[in-house]
C-alpha cells in the first residue's frame, strides 16, 4: 500500500487539467476589406438612340474592314458585322423601317418649244415657231416609304412621293421675236413611285440614287392681248434622283438631292409642250 499511494499521487499531479467550455477560444470571422468597403452597384443610365449611334460609329472605326464584313472573332472577342454607321440590329434581310420625308425645292423648266396644233387661243400662240422661257419656281416634296436592310452596303428603299412646283413665264417668243404683254404661269403636281438605293459608308454621309415613274398634272394660264386662257392636262412622268444624306442620329437624316424630271407631251393653250424640269431639294428624312 505504501508503494501504491505515491504512484497514484504522481499520476494525479501529472494529468492535464480539463478545460471548461467557457475557456475555449471562439473563432473570429474576418471580413475582407473589399467586401466591407463595397457599395451597391449603380444602375446603368439608359441611353438614347443618339448614344447608341455614336457607339456604333466608334465601333466601326475601330474594327477592320474584313471583320466588319464577316463578323469574325477579333482578339478573342466576337465582333458583330455592322453594315454602316447607322445602328440596325434586325437579322432578317426583308426587315426594315417605315420612314417619312419632306423637302423644300427650287425648280427650273428648260426653254420649251410650243407646238402649233391648238388654234383655240390666238395668232401669237399659233406661230410657226414659238418658245416659252420660265422663271425659277419653288415648291415642296413629301414622301412615305419603306427602307429595307442593306445588302452588301447597298440599302434599297421604296417610296411614294408627292411634289408640287409653280413657275411663271418669263418670256415668250413667236417667230423669234419677243411677244410684248404676254404673261402666264404653270403649276405642276406630281405623284411618283420611286425605287431608291442608299450607299452605306463608314461615316455619317450616305450617298443615294434612284428613279421613279408616275403622273404629272399640269395647270397653265396664259394672258395676251387682254385675253386669258387656262388649260389642264395630266400625263405620264419619270425622274432620276441623286443625292447625299447626313445621319444626325441612327433614325434621322438631312438630305440634299437633284432630280431630273421628264414630262410627256402636254396639250396646253396654244399647242403642245414637252417640258424638261430640274429640281434641287433640301429636306429631312426620319425612320421609325
Helical element count? Answer: 4
Regarding CATH, which class of the domain at 96-287?
Mainly Beta
- In which range does the helix fraction lie? 10-25%
Shape: rod-shaped
The SS-based structural class is mainly beta
Roughly how many Å is the radius of gyration? Answer: 41 Å
Topology (SSEs and partners):
Blueprint: H1 4-14, H2 33-36, H3 49-62, H4 65-70, E1 73-74, E2 77-78, E3 96-109, E4 112-114, E5 130-134, E6 137-148, E7 154-174, E8 177-178, E9 183-199, E10 205-224, E11 227-247, E12 252-263, E13 266-268, E14 271-273, E15 276-287
Antiparallel strand pairs: 1-2, 3-6, 3-15, 4-5, 5-7, 6-7, 7-8, 7-9, 9-10, 10-11, 11-12, 12-15, 13-14
What does this protein structure show overall?
With 288 residues, the chain is mainly beta. It has a domain at 96-287: Porin, CATH 2.40.160. The chain contains four helices and 15 strands. It has helices at residues 4-14, 33-36, 49-62, 65-70, and strands at residues 73-74, 77-78, 96-109, 112-114, 130-134, 137-148, 154-174, 177-178, 183-199, 205-224, 227-247, 252-263, 266-268, 271-273, 276-287. The strands form three sheets. It has an eight-stranded antiparallel β-barrel. It has a two-stranded antiparallel sheet with strand order 1-2. Strands 13-14 form a two-stranded antiparallel sheet. Strand 13 and strand 14 (271-273) form a beta hairpin. The longest helix is centred in the N-terminal third of the chain and has 14 residues, at 49-62. The protein is rod-shaped, with a radius of gyration of 41 Å. It starts with a helix and ends with a strand.
Amino acid at each position: 500500500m505504501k508503494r501504491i499511494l505515491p504512484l497514484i499521487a504522481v499520476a494525479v499531479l501529472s494529468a492535464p487539467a480539463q478545460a471548461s467550455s467557457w475557456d475555449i477560444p471562439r473563432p473570429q470571422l474576418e471580413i475582407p476589406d473589399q467586401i466591407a468597403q463595397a457599395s451597391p452597384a449603380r444602375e446603368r443610365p439608359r441611353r438614347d438612340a443618339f448614344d447608341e449611334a455614336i457607339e456604333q460609329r466608334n465601333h466601326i472605326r475601330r474594327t477592320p474592314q474584313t471583320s466588319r464584313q464577316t463578323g469574325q472573332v477579333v482578339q478573342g472577342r466576337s465582333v458583330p458585322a455592322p453594315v454602316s454607321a447607322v445602328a440596325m440590329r434586325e437579322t432578317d434581310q426583308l426587315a426594315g423601317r417605315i420612314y417619312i420625308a419632306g423637302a423644300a425645292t427650287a425648280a427650273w423648266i428648260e426653254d420649251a418649244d410650243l407646238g402649233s396644233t391648238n388654234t383655240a387661243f390666238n395668232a401669237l400662240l399659233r406661230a410657226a415657231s414659238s418658245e416659252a422661257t420660265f422663271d425659277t419656281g419653288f415648291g415642296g416634296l413629301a414622301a412615305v416609304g419603306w427602307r429595307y436592310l442593306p445588302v452588301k452596303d447597298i440599302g434599297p428603299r421604296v417610296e411614294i412621293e408627292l411634289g408640287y412646283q409653280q413657275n411663271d413665264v418669263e418670256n415668250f417668243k413667236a417667230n423669234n421675236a419677243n411677244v410684248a404683254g404676254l404673261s402666264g404661269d404653270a403649276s405642276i403636281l406630281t405623284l411618283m413611285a420611286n425605287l431608291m438605293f442608299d450607299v452605306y459608308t463608314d461615316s455619317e454621309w450616305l450617298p443615294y440614287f434612284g428613279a421613279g415613274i408616275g403622273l404629272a398634272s399640269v395647270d397653265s394660264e396664259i394672258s395676251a392681248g387682254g385675253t386669258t386662257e387656262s388649260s389642264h392636262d395630266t400625263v405620264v412622268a419619270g425622274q432620276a434622283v441623286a443625292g447625299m444624306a447626313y445621319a444626325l442620329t441612327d433614325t434621322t437624316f438631312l438630305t440634299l438631292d437633284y432630280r431630273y424630271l421628264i414630262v410627256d407631251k402636254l396639250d396646253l393653250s396654244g399647242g403642245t409642250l414637252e417640258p424638261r424640269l430640274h429640281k434641287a431639294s433640301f429636306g429631312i428624312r426620319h425612320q421609325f
